[in-house]
Amino acid sequence: AAAAAAAKVNDLQSDPTIVLNASDASEDEPDLFHERFARLSSLAIPAIDCVRALREIIGKHHFHLVLEVEQLIKELSSRFSPGPEERLLQIVHALLNKCWKAYPQTTSVPSILKRDLQGICDVIFNDERTSASRRFNARYRERFENDLLPRDSSGNPKESFPTTLDELTSRLKWWRTTLRADVDWLFPHDLMLEREAPNLAAMQPQFLDMPSNLVNLESDFDPYRPHRLAMIGRTVSISRRDCQADRRLEFVGMDGKTQLFLVQTAPKRSTERMMHFYRQMNSLLARHAESRRRHLRYRAPTLLPVWSGSTNASGSVDNHRGDCLSSSMGSGGRSWLVEDDASHASLLEAFEITYARHGRDVDVPLRHFAKLALGTGMEHADDMQTDAQRHDACCHAYEDTCKIVSENLLSQYMYKTLPTCNHLWSFKRSFLAHYALSVFSGNLFIVGHRTPSRLLLSRNSGAVVQVDFFPNYGANGLLENAEAVPFRLTRNLHTFLTPFGVDGGMAVAIGAAAQAIFQSHSCANSRFALLFRDELCTWRSPSMREMLDSKNTVSPSPSVQLYHTPGSFKLRDVIHANARACAIRAIRMHPECSALMADVTSLLNDIVTSAPWRSGHRSAIGDEEEESLDALMQVATQPRALSAMESTWMPWL
Fold it and tell me: Cβ neighbours of residue 354 under 8 Å, at least 6 residues apart?
């Protein structure tokens, strides 16, 4: 409510005679404050100050609710951070992925890897405040610095540091295996809430709602009978995906229903905006007959930010800025509650379980692809001067790697996971519909980096959740993606869905989603523009800061006036350019594309009516040729396009 009120404040005209003072509003006259709050403007008083004053009023009238919220936020922000061994494992895994990405270009250790290793060694072992940190330093510091520290304290190169990328990869693999064994031994899969957070275990909430009620206001939601939070489950499980260790909490409602939430520390503002856009899309899909017939609906998990800034009983926030992000929750940063499902499994997990069952090393395909992509011998990699030679070597490496990786891994995994053939058939139908929507939105916003670890599928319902799914922007603020394939449709996915499902059910579902966007009164252009405006206003690019700080804009802070600011190719023009490009891509996926393109000129004119385009930018923004859906699927399954992807993308899987 405070965020919505602050957004509304930016639209109102300023009144210098009104002074915001929470003490002026007595407990008997709460409407006096709301009347004054509605007359404020962002030009007179910043929105954050309005929110702080509104929070003070809430603290006065709902004292017990504020206390429960404070206690919950404090415990979530400080008690469920990963251990030092788990953080080091995640860092080593990320460095190993960087090594695999660097193989096709060079055999020596890149300078960026040396810089990262030097910074990690300087930061990760500097904490001596707790007994766990001292135990961690005593166990790993000497060996880690001896194996992976590029320079000593004097700045001289160390002789023990690896000289080749192959040697560095071998050492990182040894560290990853060792840390995985230590993490499994130190941190069991299930922890006790009484030991991890005693105050949270003793908490008996009476006024808190279930977290999903804050964002999922569906049509059957009854505001007069809210779903209250009864307790938090006594077992804290650990979710380990792609070498990440997140604590999973169980929220139990008054009606007996339970919901699982992960406590994560990575900033997810872009993902949160995409989830809100998915909920808006669900309303359009529910109004369209063809999408209702195929049960098309986005899976939009709940994401809630949790601030660790301390608050007092009156509700005022000491850390009122709310922008202090930290990678560690225990250091006073921001954590997130992310809705989760225990039945979620990634495509990478299916691959690793299959290889582990046969006693194989999961890095064999990566290693095989890296060797062949470098040429006949790793020492001759630097002799390849042209991109064509590298691409030919990658094509040969891709075709050869496909021979050692089966295309039935996902099919066998689901066949052994689900109990009967009827369950497998129902799962395929649900997975096909959800993945079609994922492909549709991925191509709509040109979302890339769809590695196997970022594709989560629910083994219970077949729902698909894409991790870190948000648009990427170039230096000029326009949507950008340099990948060779438009979306992920590799061998295992194509085999599991069968050619009939890909060419039939998936194509029809994508066409139905495109029809839902262009139905009457859908306001699709405004929805696109609203999403891009929020994204670009919070974008931290040097060019975007110059755009926001230019004379043609009102203020460098995100405000509604920026959207209406006249100017040539500034923020408003970039927003309309991205919305126009999304509309074109959606039309190309429409089943009646040829008939609809006859009227597309008037549609696109409505998008850019208020944007004074410069002739030099028109062709670079939206006049490029877009492929049809059939052509996109052909490119997504073409071996030469797949071979151009990074090795960590695993195009052979």
Answer: 409, 412, 413
Which pTM was predicted?
0.81
Is residue 479 within 8 A of residue 445, CB to CB? The reply is: yes
Instruction: Please tell me the distance from the alpha carbon of residue 440 to that of residue 456, in angstroms, as a whole number.
Output: 17
Region of 413 please: left (phi>0), alpha (psi -120 to 50) or beta. alpha
- Rounded distance, CA 351 to CA 651, Å? 13
pLDDT digits (tens, 9 = 90+) for 263-306: 988 767 888 889 889 988 998 999 999 999 999 999 989 888 88
Radius of gyration of the chain measured on its C-alpha atoms = 27
121-149 in b/e burial notation, b at 16+ Cβ within 10 A?
beebbebeeeeeeeebbeebeeebbebbb
Alpha carbon 1 to chain centroid distance?
25
Per-residue DSSP letter, 505? I
3-state secondary structure of 229: strand
Query: What b/e sequence results for 377-394 when a residue is b if at least 16 CB atoms lie within 10 Å of its CB, and e otherwise?
Result: ebeebeebeeeeebbebb
Q: How far apart are CA 103 and CA 107, in angstroms?
A: 6
Q: Exposed, middle or buried: residue 568 (CB in 10 Å: 0-12, 13-18, 19+)? A: exposed
What CA–CA distance (Å, rounded) separates 649 from 489? 12
CA distances for 572 relative to 251, 473, 603, angstroms: 42, 15, 18
